[in-house]
């Protein structure tokens, strides 16, 4: 059947030479490309890095692992208002609120606190909306830490044990509301 546009080309298949049948031109062409890349990498700066010994610098707008901040007296800032969970587009945050009891004033800043606070890092898209929604400045995404790789799915659900900032002022995140050196010294003497 002849095409209507008459643009079809009739091709004839040329017989292959002995070298083409042995794939010699293709083998030498592939080897030459490999050698070009080998000598280019040996003479120029490498584009890859030796991770994890070397790490690339983070972008100034990088949002990494979450942290629940403490106030200047070492109490948890989170009041379990739930605004971070409502603002989360991936619905990665869940929490259970509780009432503070007598004698827990040094642990929790407000009368209401998060008994349970969990972030599913497999669902989180690190958009930072939880950080923006928090009226108490309790949730921050650290600029210097990433969620480490894990083998089990349940290890990606971060509870308060991994999210709450350590009491020691020297171990706290570099981002968010920072303690002044005087406040850090005062807190260090109180916790010692």
TrEMBL record:
Domain of life: Bacteria
InterPro entries associated with the record: 4Fe4S_Fe-S-bd (IPR017896), 4Fe4S_Fe_S_CS (IPR017900), NADH_quinone_OxRdtase_chainI (IPR010226)
Listed cofactors: [4Fe-4S] cluster
Any one Pfam family match given in the protein's UniProt record, by short name: Fer4_7
Domain 4Fe-4S ferredoxin-type: 69-98, 115-144
Entry keyword set: 4Fe-4S, Cell membrane, Iron, Iron-sulfur, Membrane, Metal-binding, NAD, Quinone, Repeat, Translocase, Ubiquinone
Free-text cofactor note: Binds 2 [4Fe-4S] clusters per subunit.
Compartment(s) where it occurs, according to its Swiss-Prot or TrEMBL record: Cell membrane
Subunit structure: NDH-1 is composed of 14 different subunits. Subunits NuoA, H, J, K, L, M, N constitute the membrane sector of the complex.
Job of this protein: NDH-1 shuttles electrons from NADH, via FMN and iron-sulfur (Fe-S) centers, to quinones in the respiratory chain. The immediate electron acceptor for the enzyme in this species is believed to be ubiquinone. Couples the redox reaction to proton translocation (for every two electrons transferred, four hydrogen ions are translocated across the cytoplasmic membrane), and thus conserves the redox energy in a proton gradient.
Family the entry assigns: Belongs to the complex I 23 kDa subunit family.
Protein name, as recorded: NADH-quinone oxidoreductase subunit I
């Amino acid at each position: 059947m002849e095409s209507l546009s008459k643009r079809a080309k009739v091709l004839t298949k040329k017989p292959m030479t002995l070298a083409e049948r042995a794939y010699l031109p293709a083998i030498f062409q592939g080897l030459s490309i490999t050698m070009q890349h080998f000598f280019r990498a040996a003479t120029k700066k490498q584009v890859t890095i030796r991770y994890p010994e070397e790490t690339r610098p983070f972008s100034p707008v990088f949002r990494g692992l979450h942290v629940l901040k403490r106030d200047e007296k070492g109490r948890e800032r989170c009041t379990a208002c739930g605004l971070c969970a409502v603002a989360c587009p991936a619905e990665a945050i869940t929490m259970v609120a509780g009432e503070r009891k007598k004698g827990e004033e040094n642990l929790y800043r407000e009368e209401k606190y998060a008994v349970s606070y969990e972030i599913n890092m497999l669902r989180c898209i690190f958009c930072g909306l939880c950080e923006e929604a928090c009226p108490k400045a309790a949730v921050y995404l650290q600029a210097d830490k990433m969620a480490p790789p894990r083998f089990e799915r349940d290890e990606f659900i971060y509870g308060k044990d991994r999210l709450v900032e350590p009491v020691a002022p020297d171990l706290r995140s570099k981002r968010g509301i920072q303690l002044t050196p005087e406040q850090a010294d005062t807190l260090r003497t109180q916790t010692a």
